[in-house]
Design brief:
Layout lengths: L5 H11 L8 E3 L7 E6 L3 E6 L6 H14 L9 E5 L9 E5 L4 E2 L8 H17 L23 H11 L5 H11 L9 E3 L8 E4 L2 E5 L6 E3 L7 H4 L5 H9 L3 H19 L5 H12 L5
Helix pairs in contact: 3-7, 4-8, 5-8, 8-9
Length: about 290
C-alpha cells in the first residue's frame, strides 16, 4: 500500500495541473479500500489507486464513465483529467467532477422503498446501455459479471472454517441453486460493486452512483446483492420488481451474496455480513 495524503495530492496537482494548484485539498471522510479520494476545491475530486492492482481501474473508468453517463438516469463521476505517476507516487490517477450527496450507508431520513425502486430502475437502465466496447468480465472486475462458480473454492474453504457457526446445510442449498443457471443472453453492463458506500443520496432519494472500478459487461446478477445487504423485508420485492430480471438471475445473485458473507465471516466476526447471510438464508428472493 502507498501512503497517500493531502500533501502528496497537492504536490501532484501543482506539478501536473497548475491551473488547480490554488484549490484546497481535503480528504473525504469515508475512504474506500481500492482508491483514496480527496476534494479539490468545491467542484472537483482526485482519485488515486491505493495499490498496483487497482491502478488499471483508472483507465477503465476514464473510458467507461463517459459512455455510461450518456445513458443512465442518474449522474456518475465525470473524468476531467488523468494524472501520471510523480512525486514518488507510482500510478496514474484521475481528476473527476465532485458529486454532492451522502452515501447510502451514512444517510438518514431515507424513503427506503423509493431508494430500492430507484436503484432497481438504475440497474435496469445500466443493462440497456450498448455494450459494444465494454470490458468483458474477468480479473479486472474481480470476476464480477462472471458465473458465481468462479468462487466455489472460496465458498468451500469458508464453510470448512466456519463449521457449526453457520447453517452449513442451508448455505450449501443456496449455493447449489446459484449454480444451476447461467446468463443466457448477450453480455450487458454491470457495476460490480453496488454497495451502500457507492450510492449517493440527496433529499432522501438516490442521487448518483460512484466507483465503477469493477464495472464491465457480462452477467448482471452480481449487482443484485443489495437485496440482502441493504434492503429489508418488503423492500426486496420493490427492488426485485424494479430490476426486472427472472428468478434464475436472483438465484445466482444469492450465490454472490452468500460467497461474500462467508468469506467475510471466516476470518472472524463481521456484523454487516452476518446480517446479510441471515437475510440470504431467510429470504432468497427467488426459489
Amino acid at each position: 500500500m502507498v501512503e497517500i495524503d493531502e500533501t502528496l495530492v497537492r504536490t501532484l496537482v501543482a506539478a501536473q495541473f497548475p491551473r488547480w494548484a490554488h484549490l484546497p485539498v481535503t480528504a473525504v471522510t469515508r475512504q474506500g479500500w481500492d482508491n483514496r479520494t480527496f476534494r479539490l476545491g468545491g467542484e472537483l475530486l482526485v482519485r488515486l489507486p491505493s495499490a498496483e492492482g487497482y491502478a488499471p481501474g483508472i483507465a477503465k473508468e476514464d473510458h467507461c464513465l463517459p459512455i455510461l453517463a450518456r445513458h443512465l438516469p442518474l449522474p456518475v463521476p465525470e473524468p476531467v483529467a488523468t494524472g501520471a505517476p510523480g512525486a514518488g507516487y507510482p500510478y496514474p490517477w484521475s481528476v473527476r467532477r465532485w458529486l454532492p450527496g451522502d452515501t447510502l450507508a451514512a444517510a438518514r431520513g431515507l424513503d427506503r422503498a423509493a431508494v430500492a425502486r430507484d436503484l432497481g430502475g438504475l440497474l435496469a437502465a445500466l443493462r440497456r446501455v450498448p455494450s459494444a466496447g465494454g470490458p468483458a468480465a474477468g480479473r479486472h472486475s474481480a470476476f464480477r459479471g462472471c458465473h458465481p462458480s468462479v468462487y466455489g473454492d472460496e465458498v468451500e474453504q469458508a464453510l470448512a472454517v466456519l463449521g457449526g457457526r453457520v447453517d452449513t446445510a442451508a448455505c450449501r442449498a443456496v449455493w447449489a441453486r446459484a449454480l444451476t443457471s447461467a446468463w443466457p443472453d448477450a453480455p450487458v453492463w454491470f457495476h460490480g460493486d453496488v454497495s451502500a458506500g457507492n450510492l449517493l443520496v440527496a433529499d432522501g432519494r438516490l442521487a448518483a452512483v460512484i466507483d465503477f472500478g469493477q464495472c464491465g459487461v457480462g452477467d448482471p446478477a452480481c449487482d443484485l446483492v443489495p437485496a440482502w445487504t441493504w434492503c429489508v423485508g418488503a423492500e426486496r420485492a420493490v427492488f426485485r420488481d424494479a430490476v426486472g430480471l427472472p428468478a434464475d438471475a436472483w438465484r445466482r445473485a444469492s450465490g454472490w451474496a452468500l460467497w461474500k458473507a462467508l468469506v467475510s465471516l471466516a476470518p472472524g466476526p463481521h456484523e454487516e455480513q452476518a446480517r446479510a447471510l441471515a437475510a440470504v438464508l431467510d429470504d432468497p428472493v427467488a426459489e
